[in-house]
Amino acid sequence: MSCDRAAVSWPDWPIQSVELAVMALTLRGLAADRPLGLRVLTGDDLLDRPIGWVHPTELTDPQAFLEGGELLLTTGLALDEETSRGYVRRLVDAGVAGLGFGVGLSHDEVPRALVETAAEVGLPVLEVPRETPFIAITRAVSRAVAADEYATTVRIGKAQQELTRTAVGKGGPAGVLRKLAKLIDGWVLLFDHASAEAAPASAHAHAGSVREEAKHLRSGTRAFALDGEEVVLQTLHTRARRILAVGTPEPLDTAGRHVVNAAVSLLSLALEQDLTLTHAWWDLRKGAADLLAAGQYELAFGLITTVWGDPPEPPWAMVALVGAPAQRHRVGDALDGDSSLFFAEWGSAMLVVGRSGGDVLDRALAAAATVPPMYAGLADPVRLEDFEVGAEQADLAARAAEADGKPLVTFAEHSARGLLSLIDPVVARIYAENVLAPLRAHDETGRGDLVGSLRCWLEHHGHWDIAAARLGVHRHTLRNRIRKAEELLGRDLDSPGVRAELWVALQA
């Protein structure tokens, strides 16, 4: 590995100079050590291979004693022109980095067959002169390996310090992600089922592919290739399932893996602390809203003023945003810091309160637009003493928007619907489906339109001739249909109360 490559890989790392000075020793670096007097016979283009260790042996088949990556040293005591070819191929199969052949003892020169075969199969061969003892080569490699391990230890320690300072400082989890991306010279994604944070921001482009791969990971670590890069997934030790994805052009080395593990531990701790603190803040906001609903205005205003600043002056515009818990929390994050608004969870909605006549609705909708789909309901104006009523009105309007698939419904629009405006749209729909289910099941058989006939009959106050004419059927046919509906529903359609309930169900 060249110095230029090291500088590119770690551009902003404060211990860059340490890594430049003590990289893993390569065959090229060893051959350049002039006191050793080594001569390269084959594999000039393969000399950038790192040397994992040195192993002297005179065995003709040392494969059982090798792990791969070694520089093998031999004097060729048991080798000749015939046996050299098979010997070289066995070394290649064992994955050695190269072969150092000592001359001047068993052989005056390296066997020609060995050199030819090594050139053919891609095995670097270094000629070791008689005056260079193998122990000198072993010492040179040993010093380089020790220095490299020390540099790795220093690099890990420095990186852990950088990550820790970031985690406990103002950077928080987002800062840890940015620092980690720089330390590994790659990109990172931290995601859960609903959202993802990326460093750098361009890493969001990988979110879809990473999420798909994460479906195969229950816990622990998983590695896979993505667009020519290695991506490592690591689950965090948090109550909510979160996964850290790390992408690098080359597989992580030992130091890189330690750095990622340190980041996982810090992120797990920071996120759990953030989660606990976040829950406490949400509970505090909800408590202030409950005080307002209970008429404890002095206590509520004192709490809001102390923690978040002066509350907006009533009368208020109140916006309810309906969505999943994660969506509501992200809306809260978007609104946090705006002292002219107060927001809190209200049931399963996010309630946003601001001065009537201001731009409360626009700001609430802008925050909701960052996490679609969400549905909004507006109650405006609302007096201080009507806080609970206004909150319920905004919530009902938001649920009507959700039921209708509209981004916004005002309570004024919702209340214009009459009796149904007083019923939760979801509850009304479920009620209607249950009540009318026997009639719909009958109609699906093609034996008559009981639902349509009942609707028309009720619209015309039970007048047989007018309803039958509107439906285009004989009045006796209509009587039979209504009788069948009465039988399936198990209700007396002569009862005004039953007719009213069925009419509400048909409208819902």
Automatic annotation (TrEMBL):
Residues 37-144 form the Purine catabolism PurC-like domain. Residues 450-508 form the PucR C-terminal helix-turn-helix domain. It holds the Pfam family HTH_30. Transmembrane segments: none annotated. PANTHER family: CARBOHYDRATE DIACID REGULATOR (PTHR33744), DNA-BINDING TRANSCRIPTIONAL ACTIVATOR ADER (PTHR33744:SF1). This is Regulatory protein. It comes from Amycolatopsis camponoti.
